[in-house]
Write a structure and sequence with these properties.
This protein is mostly helical. The protein has two domains: about 160 residues, no CATH class; about 70 residues, no CATH class. Helix content is about 50%, strand content about 10%. It has eleven helices and four strands, in the order H-H-H-H-H-H-E-E-H-E-E-H-H-H-H. Helix 9 packs antiparallel against helix 10, helix 9 packs parallel to helix 11 and helix 10 packs antiparallel against helix 11.
Protein backbone atom coordinates (compact mmCIF):
# COMPACT_ATOMS: atom_id res chain seq x y z
CA UNK A 1 0.00 0.00 0.00
CA UNK A 2 3.04 2.30 -0.26
CA UNK A 3 1.77 3.56 -3.62
CA UNK A 4 -1.52 4.51 -2.01
CA UNK A 5 0.22 6.42 0.76
CA UNK A 6 2.51 8.13 -1.74
CA UNK A 7 -0.34 9.42 -3.88
CA UNK A 8 -2.25 10.64 -0.85
CA UNK A 9 0.72 12.60 0.45
CA UNK A 10 1.60 14.50 -2.73
CA UNK A 11 1.74 18.28 -2.11
CA UNK A 12 -1.35 20.25 -3.08
CA UNK A 13 -1.40 21.11 -6.80
CA UNK A 14 1.73 19.12 -7.59
CA UNK A 15 -0.07 16.60 -9.77
CA UNK A 16 -2.43 19.18 -11.22
CA UNK A 17 0.16 21.81 -12.06
CA UNK A 18 2.98 19.62 -13.31
CA UNK A 19 1.70 16.19 -14.35
CA UNK A 20 -1.92 16.52 -15.53
CA UNK A 21 -1.12 16.25 -19.23
CA UNK A 22 0.66 12.93 -18.62
CA UNK A 23 -2.73 11.29 -18.26
CA UNK A 24 -3.57 12.30 -21.82
CA UNK A 25 -0.47 10.76 -23.41
CA UNK A 26 0.63 7.80 -21.32
CA UNK A 27 -0.79 4.29 -21.76
CA UNK A 28 -2.07 2.77 -18.55
CA UNK A 29 0.70 0.15 -18.51
CA UNK A 30 3.38 2.86 -18.51
CA UNK A 31 2.52 3.83 -14.95
CA UNK A 32 4.49 0.73 -13.87
CA UNK A 33 8.22 1.24 -14.44
CA UNK A 34 11.47 -0.59 -13.80
CA UNK A 35 11.17 -3.83 -11.82
CA UNK A 36 7.50 -3.10 -11.19
CA UNK A 37 6.90 -3.10 -14.94
CA UNK A 38 8.54 -6.52 -15.35
CA UNK A 39 6.51 -7.91 -12.49
CA UNK A 40 3.35 -6.44 -13.95
CA UNK A 41 4.06 -8.00 -17.38
CA UNK A 42 4.74 -11.40 -15.81
CA UNK A 43 1.53 -11.16 -13.81
CA UNK A 44 -0.55 -10.27 -16.88
CA UNK A 45 0.74 -13.35 -18.73
CA UNK A 46 -0.58 -15.65 -16.03
CA UNK A 47 -3.94 -17.30 -16.47
CA UNK A 48 -6.89 -17.21 -14.10
CA UNK A 49 -5.88 -14.12 -12.23
CA UNK A 50 -7.54 -10.99 -10.97
CA UNK A 51 -5.73 -7.69 -10.57
CA UNK A 52 -5.37 -6.61 -6.96
CA UNK A 53 -8.33 -4.37 -6.13
CA UNK A 54 -6.22 -1.28 -5.54
CA UNK A 55 -4.29 -1.69 -8.82
CA UNK A 56 -7.50 -2.22 -10.78
CA UNK A 57 -8.98 0.88 -9.16
CA UNK A 58 -6.01 2.99 -10.29
CA UNK A 59 -6.29 1.68 -13.86
CA UNK A 60 -10.01 2.46 -13.94
CA UNK A 61 -9.38 5.93 -12.52
CA UNK A 62 -6.67 6.70 -15.06
CA UNK A 63 -8.87 5.60 -17.95
CA UNK A 64 -11.75 7.75 -16.73
CA UNK A 65 -9.43 10.77 -16.37
CA UNK A 66 -8.06 10.21 -19.87
CA UNK A 67 -11.51 9.98 -21.41
CA UNK A 68 -14.04 11.90 -19.31
CA UNK A 69 -11.91 14.82 -18.15
CA UNK A 70 -10.63 15.35 -21.70
CA UNK A 71 -14.24 15.21 -22.97
CA UNK A 72 -15.27 17.82 -20.39
CA UNK A 73 -12.45 20.24 -21.23
CA UNK A 74 -12.85 19.83 -24.99
CA UNK A 75 -16.57 20.49 -24.69
CA UNK A 76 -16.28 23.52 -22.42
CA UNK A 77 -13.64 25.23 -24.56
CA UNK A 78 -14.94 24.30 -28.01
CA UNK A 79 -14.79 27.50 -30.07
CA UNK A 80 -13.65 29.60 -27.10
CA UNK A 81 -11.43 32.67 -27.50
CA UNK A 82 -8.00 31.71 -26.15
CA UNK A 83 -5.73 34.28 -27.77
CA UNK A 84 -7.92 37.34 -27.33
CA UNK A 85 -7.86 39.77 -30.22
CA UNK A 86 -8.76 43.44 -30.16
CA UNK A 87 -12.50 43.87 -29.68
CA UNK A 88 -13.11 40.24 -28.67
CA UNK A 89 -14.62 39.43 -25.30
CA UNK A 90 -13.17 36.65 -23.19
CA UNK A 91 -15.94 34.86 -21.27
CA UNK A 92 -15.07 33.98 -17.64
CA UNK A 93 -14.71 30.25 -16.91
CA UNK A 94 -17.83 29.64 -14.77
CA UNK A 95 -20.26 31.38 -17.18
CA UNK A 96 -18.61 29.49 -20.04
CA UNK A 97 -19.20 26.14 -18.30
CA UNK A 98 -22.84 27.07 -17.69
CA UNK A 99 -23.41 28.33 -21.23
CA UNK A 100 -22.15 25.01 -22.63
CA UNK A 101 -24.57 23.07 -20.40
CA UNK A 102 -21.82 21.45 -18.33
CA UNK A 103 -22.64 23.10 -15.01
CA UNK A 104 -24.30 20.03 -13.49
CA UNK A 105 -21.34 17.80 -14.33
CA UNK A 106 -18.80 19.40 -11.99
CA UNK A 107 -20.45 18.17 -8.76
CA UNK A 108 -18.96 14.66 -8.92
CA UNK A 109 -15.63 12.97 -9.57
CA UNK A 110 -16.88 11.28 -12.77
CA UNK A 111 -17.98 14.65 -14.23
CA UNK A 112 -21.47 13.34 -14.96
CA UNK A 113 -20.62 9.87 -16.28
CA UNK A 114 -22.12 8.35 -13.14
CA UNK A 115 -25.81 9.38 -12.87
CA UNK A 116 -25.55 9.23 -9.09
CA UNK A 117 -23.97 12.01 -7.07
CA UNK A 118 -20.36 10.90 -6.62
CA UNK A 119 -18.79 13.54 -4.42
CA UNK A 120 -15.26 12.62 -3.26
CA UNK A 121 -14.86 11.35 0.32
CA UNK A 122 -12.07 13.61 1.54
CA UNK A 123 -10.63 13.96 5.02
CA UNK A 124 -9.23 17.39 5.79
CA UNK A 125 -7.23 18.76 8.69
CA UNK A 126 -5.06 21.81 9.31
CA UNK A 127 -1.61 22.05 10.80
CA UNK A 128 1.24 24.48 11.35
CA UNK A 129 4.11 24.19 8.88
CA UNK A 130 7.40 25.91 9.60
CA UNK A 131 8.69 27.51 12.76
CA UNK A 132 8.64 30.94 14.39
CA UNK A 133 8.18 33.79 11.89
CA UNK A 134 8.02 31.31 8.98
CA UNK A 135 5.14 29.34 10.49
CA UNK A 136 1.93 29.15 8.46
CA UNK A 137 -1.41 27.35 8.65
CA UNK A 138 -1.72 24.76 5.89
CA UNK A 139 -4.42 22.37 4.77
CA UNK A 140 -3.74 18.63 4.81
CA UNK A 141 -6.04 16.36 2.82
CA UNK A 142 -6.34 12.57 2.72
CA UNK A 143 -7.64 10.59 -0.26
CA UNK A 144 -8.43 6.90 -0.71
CA UNK A 145 -8.55 7.02 -4.52
CA UNK A 146 -6.48 8.62 -7.25
CA UNK A 147 -9.64 9.88 -8.96
CA UNK A 148 -10.77 11.74 -5.83
CA UNK A 149 -7.37 13.41 -5.58
CA UNK A 150 -7.29 14.49 -9.24
CA UNK A 151 -10.89 15.75 -9.08
CA UNK A 152 -10.22 17.96 -6.05
CA UNK A 153 -6.96 19.28 -7.51
CA UNK A 154 -8.63 19.85 -10.87
CA UNK A 155 -11.51 21.87 -9.40
CA UNK A 156 -9.27 23.82 -7.03
CA UNK A 157 -7.14 24.69 -10.03
CA UNK A 158 -10.13 25.86 -12.08
CA UNK A 159 -11.26 28.00 -9.15
CA UNK A 160 -7.91 29.80 -9.18
CA UNK A 161 -7.74 30.13 -12.97
CA UNK A 162 -5.41 27.23 -13.80
CA UNK A 163 -6.92 25.66 -16.93
CA UNK A 164 -5.64 22.57 -18.79
CA UNK A 165 -5.94 23.11 -22.55
CA UNK A 166 -5.06 21.24 -25.72
CA UNK A 167 -2.38 22.87 -27.85
CA UNK A 168 -3.87 23.96 -31.18
CA UNK A 169 -0.71 22.83 -32.96
CA UNK A 170 0.36 19.50 -31.42
CA UNK A 171 -2.74 18.47 -29.43
CA UNK A 172 -0.82 17.93 -26.19
CA UNK A 173 -2.19 19.22 -22.89
CA UNK A 174 -0.63 22.26 -21.24
CA UNK A 175 -1.58 24.33 -18.22
CA UNK A 176 -2.71 27.89 -18.79
CA UNK A 177 -2.08 30.07 -15.77
CA UNK A 178 -4.42 32.78 -14.44
CA UNK A 179 -4.65 35.83 -16.69
CA UNK A 180 -2.99 34.16 -19.68
CA UNK A 181 -4.78 33.48 -22.98
CA UNK A 182 -2.75 31.09 -25.09
CA UNK A 183 -3.80 28.58 -27.72
CA UNK A 184 -0.34 26.99 -28.05
CA UNK A 185 1.97 25.20 -25.62
CA UNK A 186 5.66 25.91 -25.01
CA UNK A 187 6.82 22.37 -25.86
CA UNK A 188 8.93 21.67 -28.97
CA UNK A 189 6.73 21.67 -32.07
CA UNK A 190 6.78 18.42 -34.07
CA UNK A 191 9.18 18.65 -37.00
CA UNK A 192 10.16 22.28 -36.38
CA UNK A 193 13.83 21.99 -35.35
CA UNK A 194 13.49 23.12 -31.75
CA UNK A 195 10.90 25.86 -32.17
CA UNK A 196 8.02 25.71 -29.71
CA UNK A 197 4.38 25.41 -30.69
CA UNK A 198 3.79 28.89 -29.26
CA UNK A 199 6.52 30.37 -31.46
CA UNK A 200 5.11 28.61 -34.51
CA UNK A 201 1.57 29.67 -33.62
CA UNK A 202 2.50 33.31 -33.02
CA UNK A 203 4.29 33.50 -36.36
CA UNK A 204 1.39 31.83 -38.16
CA UNK A 205 -1.22 34.03 -36.47
CA UNK A 206 0.73 37.20 -37.26
CA UNK A 207 1.16 36.26 -40.93
CA UNK A 208 -2.55 35.47 -41.19
CA UNK A 209 -3.42 38.78 -39.53
CA UNK A 210 -1.26 40.76 -41.95
CA UNK A 211 -2.38 38.85 -45.04
CA UNK A 212 -6.07 39.39 -44.32
CA UNK A 213 -6.11 43.06 -43.34
CA UNK A 214 -5.06 46.00 -45.56
CA UNK A 215 -4.31 48.26 -42.58
CA UNK A 216 -1.82 45.71 -41.25
CA UNK A 217 -0.26 45.36 -44.72
CA UNK A 218 0.25 49.12 -44.98
CA UNK A 219 1.69 49.31 -41.48
CA UNK A 220 4.18 46.48 -42.09
CA UNK A 221 5.41 47.99 -45.36
CA UNK A 222 5.98 51.34 -43.68
CA UNK A 223 7.65 49.68 -40.68
CA UNK A 224 10.17 47.87 -42.89
CA UNK A 225 10.82 51.05 -44.87
CA UNK A 226 11.61 53.16 -41.80
CA UNK A 227 13.54 50.38 -40.04
CA UNK A 228 15.84 50.18 -43.08
CA UNK A 229 16.69 53.85 -42.55
CA UNK A 230 18.43 52.98 -39.27
CA UNK A 231 20.86 50.71 -41.13
CA UNK A 232 21.52 53.30 -43.81
CA UNK A 233 22.08 56.05 -41.21
CA UNK A 234 19.14 58.19 -42.35
CA UNK A 235 17.34 57.81 -39.01
CA UNK A 236 18.54 57.27 -35.44
CA UNK A 237 17.21 54.46 -33.28
CA UNK A 238 15.47 56.91 -30.93
CA UNK A 239 13.81 58.66 -33.89
CA UNK A 240 12.60 55.29 -35.18
CA UNK A 241 11.17 54.37 -31.76
CA UNK A 242 9.17 57.63 -31.69
CA UNK A 243 7.87 56.96 -35.20
CA UNK A 244 7.06 53.33 -34.29
CA UNK A 245 4.91 54.34 -31.29
CA UNK A 246 3.02 56.93 -33.31
CA UNK A 247 2.55 54.44 -36.16
CA UNK A 248 1.15 51.81 -33.77
CA UNK A 249 -1.37 54.30 -32.35
CA UNK A 250 -2.45 55.33 -35.84
CA UNK A 251 -2.69 51.66 -36.89
CA UNK A 252 -4.83 50.64 -33.89
CA UNK A 253 -7.24 53.55 -34.41
CA UNK A 254 -7.55 52.65 -38.10
CA UNK A 255 -8.13 48.96 -37.28
CA UNK A 256 -11.18 49.86 -35.21
CA UNK A 257 -12.62 51.91 -38.07
CA UNK A 258 -11.69 49.19 -40.55
CA UNK A 259 -13.57 46.56 -38.49
CA UNK A 260 -16.70 48.75 -38.43
CA UNK A 261 -16.57 49.57 -42.16
CA UNK A 262 -19.76 48.57 -43.96
CA UNK A 263 -18.29 47.92 -47.42
CA UNK A 264 -15.04 47.30 -49.29
CA UNK A 265 -14.89 50.86 -50.65
CA UNK A 266 -14.82 52.29 -47.14
CA UNK A 267 -12.14 49.81 -46.05
CA UNK A 268 -9.94 50.76 -49.00
CA UNK A 269 -10.36 54.45 -48.20
CA UNK A 270 -9.23 53.84 -44.60
CA UNK A 271 -6.21 51.85 -45.81
CA UNK A 272 -5.25 54.68 -48.18
CA UNK A 273 -5.49 57.25 -45.37
CA UNK A 274 -3.17 55.12 -43.24
CA UNK A 275 -0.73 54.77 -46.15
CA UNK A 276 -0.50 58.54 -46.55
CA UNK A 277 -0.22 59.19 -42.81
CA UNK A 278 2.53 56.62 -42.23
CA UNK A 279 4.63 57.73 -45.19
CA UNK A 280 4.63 61.47 -44.54
CA UNK A 281 8.24 62.65 -44.81
Amino acid sequence: MDMKKGLASLPLYRLYLEDFRVFGDMPVEAFAVGEAQDAFAEFVMQEDHDLPAFMQQQIDDIRLIQERYAWFLDGVFAGAVFEKKKGQKKIPLAPMICSRGYGAFISGVSLGENPETDAPPVKTQYRIRGEKEKAEIVEKMYFDRLLDFVYVEFMKGLQKGFVPKRCTNCGRWFLQKPGATYAYCTEPAPGQDGKTCREIGASSSFRSKVENNDVWKVHQRAYKKYFARIRSGLMTKSEFEVWSRQAAELRDAALERYARAENEEERQRIAQEVTEALNTE
